């Protein structure tokens, strides 16, 4: 995971001006020496999520502002999820260790029926609604009637056309292929995980 030191410098400067304080006071507050904080800011010392989280908490911002966004997808993620079965665009939180990020397009859909034979009840399918799936990707299809199907995106070609199809297993454990309709919502699957309760918030284990 890489960190954006320019943002770190900027946020610390803004905090010292706003709080009428100094970097030395900030260093004391987060439990490091002034020299260590200097080396962090100037890039001569490596940054880890623990120190980044301490700095962020001390100056009142989310740790995510210091993390280069393209790195987020590579981390182990824990995702809050919407309790109804239809994903909608809204702000949710992604937990990576102590790190909290904004992920407006990432959702967890809890499997609470026997309609998906590959996945047990309580499994959570983590999806990204902004990413465009390609052939071979695992996807979730949300139908107009809110039925949820889990399977693989396939491209069937004949002499004249190429049609996008969705291959999935039904609860009778038989495999099916079906055309994707314009009214279907196609969501890229980015992880499979399980729900657990922790400190009064729902997070997930093992993405």
Structure, explained:
This protein is an alpha+beta fold. It folds into 2 domains: 5-72, lambda repressor-like DNA-binding domains (434 Repressor (Amino-terminal Domain)); 75-205, Umud Fragment, subunit A, CATH 2.10.109. It has helices spanning 5-19, 23-30, 34-42, 49-59; strands at 78-79, 93-96, 99-102, 106-110, 123-128, 138-142, 148-157, 162-169, 175-179, 185-198, 201-205. The strands form 2 sheets. Strands 4, 5, 6, 7, 8, 9, 10 and 11 form an 8-stranded antiparallel beta sheet that branches. It has a 3-stranded antiparallel beta sheet with strand order 1-2-3, with no helix packed on it. Strand 2 (93-96) and strand 3 (99-102) form a beta hairpin. Residues 69-102 and 197-207 have low confidence and may be disordered.
How many domains? 2
Rg over CA atoms: 22 Å
Residue stretches low in confidence (pLDDT < 50, at least 5 long) are 69-102, 197-207
Distance between the termini: 17 Å
What is the H/E order? HHHHEEEEEEEEEEE
CATH superfamily of the largest domain: Umud Fragment, subunit A
The average pLDDT score comes to 67
CATH architecture annotation of the largest domain: Ribbon
The percentage helix is 10-25%
Shape: elongated
Q: Describe the largest sheet.
A: 8 strands, antiparallel
Number of helices: 4
CATH class of the largest domain: Mainly Beta
How many extended strands? Answer: 11
Topology (elements, then pairings):
Layout: H1 5-19, H2 23-30, H3 34-42, H4 49-59, E1 78-79, E2 93-96, E3 99-102, E4 106-110, E5 123-128, E6 138-142, E7 148-157, E8 162-169, E9 175-179, E10 185-198, E11 201-205
Antiparallel strand pairs: 1-2, 2-3, 4-5, 5-10, 6-7, 6-10, 7-8, 8-9, 10-11
